[in-house]
């Protein structure tokens, strides 16, 4: 499989916390790109990061229709950060590389690490089927946002300030027809699994899952700008988050203010690209969970994503193998209006975390199939250059 196809596989895997994969529709006409980029090196050693090419790739994503895109690429001792476009279409306020982002299902890796810590303590927990999505329990999202099944965005606004209880959402998933045979050779991606894991953490630790993950995963990794939201707003600098919903919302609607109880320990985290790279570097270096636990997290099974594609999924980790470039581990995520992807090469030598503030930009055909869009091509080129200098 070609490099771009393999990266796209990870991106569109639907591991996002929504009812479909990362997609896109052209945003409303955006101001001219505002581009920022910096690179720093600790020592004069050769590197393969090319700032000019990365800046060009960022600008191309913005010109293709994404209001704002920002990210961070690390290669050995060099770190490059860049941003292009705007955080607010109304004011033209530019995006910057250090902005906070709702990182969606990347949250799942944090939750998985917390659960594995409890396994290391000798707890009698058998949760592999939840962690690798082979439980057969269906996803609750279509039932929490019922209008999506009628191609209507009404549920998005109805739930903007709604406070969901985890048990309420879990019940929706458990009441739906099974998604597969429990423990079968092929999994089916389901957010319900991750709410169950959050409830399990609470039972075992005697505190909320969010507090446990914060203390034992986020703080252990030394992350300064990663947290679960305590309300519908985001503290600190961030972009507005524009949702197109496959063209149903035109112009795209801002959902940066939203009650994230609808996704909790599955996709509610707020973070920065710097924090995400730091987290995955330390996780893969054995500093968050033990080496044996990490090996368990990297045992993958084939999982059917929400868009029908197949991915290699471990315990809260994607595996992406790119010919002539290496094996990468990480996750992607999307919530209403915000998309993020973070991948780290197995040897830790190359990392990429990227964020966009527009989602589901691909208009659907009469048959309901998302159609190609220039943003898809521009994003693949950005990922190619970020991971493999292609």
Task: Describe the overall structure.
The chain has 13 helices and 15 strands. With 390 residues, the chain is α+β, with helices and mostly antiparallel strands. The strands form three sheets. Strands 1-3-2-14-13-12-11-10-9-5 form a ten-stranded mixed beta sheet, with helices on both faces. Strands 7-6-15 form a three-stranded mixed beta sheet, with no helix packed on it. Strand 13 and strand 14 form a beta hairpin. Helix 1 packs across helix 13. The longest helix has 15 residues.
Which helices and strands occur, and which strands form pairs?
Elements: H1 3-11, E1 35-41, H2 51-64, E2 68-75, E3 78-85, E4 101-102, H3 107-120, H4 128-131, H5 141-144, H6 154-158, H7 166-175, E5 187-188, H8 192-205, H9 209-218, E6 242-243, E7 253-254, H10 264-267, E8 270-271, H11 273-284, H12 291-297, E9 301-304, E10 310-313, E11 318-322, E12 326-335, E13 338-345, E14 350-356, E15 358-359, H13 374-388
Parallel strand pairs: 5-9, 6-15
Antiparallel strand pairs: 1-3, 2-3, 2-14, 4-8, 6-7, 9-10, 10-11, 11-12, 12-13, 13-14
Helix pairs in contact: 1-13, 2-13, 3-8, 3-9, 7-8
């Amino acid at each position: 499989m070609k490099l771009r196809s393999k990266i796209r596989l990870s991106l569109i895997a639907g591991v996002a916390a929504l009812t479909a994969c990362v997609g896109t529709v052209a945003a409303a006409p955006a101001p001219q790109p505002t581009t920022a980029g910096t690179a720093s090196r600790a020592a004069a050693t050769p590197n393969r990061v090319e700032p000019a090419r990365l800046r060009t790739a960022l600008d191309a994503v913005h010109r293709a229709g994404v209001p704002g895109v920002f990210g961070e690429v690390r290669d050995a001792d060099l770190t490059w950060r860049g941003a292009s476009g705007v955080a607010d279409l109304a004011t033209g306020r530019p995006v910057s590389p250090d902005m906070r982002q709702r990182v969606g299902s990347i949250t799942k890796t944090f939750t998985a690490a917390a659960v594995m810590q409890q396994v290391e303590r000798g707890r009698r927990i058998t949760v592999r089927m939840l962690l690798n999505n082979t439980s057969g329990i269906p996803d609750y999202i279509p039932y929490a946002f019922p209008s999506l099944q009628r191609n209507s965005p009404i549920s998005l606004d109805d739930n903007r300030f709604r406070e969901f209880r985890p048990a309420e959402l879990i019940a929706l998933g458990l009441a739906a027809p099974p998604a597969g045979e429990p423990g079968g050779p092929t999994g089916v991606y389901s957010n319900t699994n991750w709410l169950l894991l959050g409830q399990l953490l609470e039972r075992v630790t005697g505190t909320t899952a969010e507090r446990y993950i914060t203390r034992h995963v986020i703080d252990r990794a030394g992350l300064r700008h990663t947290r679960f939201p305590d309300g519908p707003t985001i503290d600190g600098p961030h972009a507005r988050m524009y949702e197109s919903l496959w063209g149903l919302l035109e112009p795209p609607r801002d959902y940066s203010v939203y009650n994230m109880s609808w996704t909790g320990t599955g996709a509610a985290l707020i973070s920065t690209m710097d924090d995400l790279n730091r987290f995955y570097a330390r996780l893969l270096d054995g500093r968050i969970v033990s080496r044996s636990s990490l090996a368990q997290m990297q045992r993958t099974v084939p999982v059917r994503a929400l868009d029908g594609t197949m991915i290699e999924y471990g315990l809260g980790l994607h595996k992406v193998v790119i010919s002539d470039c290496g094996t990468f581990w990480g996750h992607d995520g999307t919530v209403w209006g915000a998309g993020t992807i973070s991948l780290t090469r197995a040897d830790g030598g190359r990392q990429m975390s990227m964020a966009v503030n527009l989602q589901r930009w691909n208009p659907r055909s009469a048959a309901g199939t998302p159609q190609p869009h220039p943003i898809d091509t521009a994003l693949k080129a950005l990922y190619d250059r970020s991971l493999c200098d292609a």
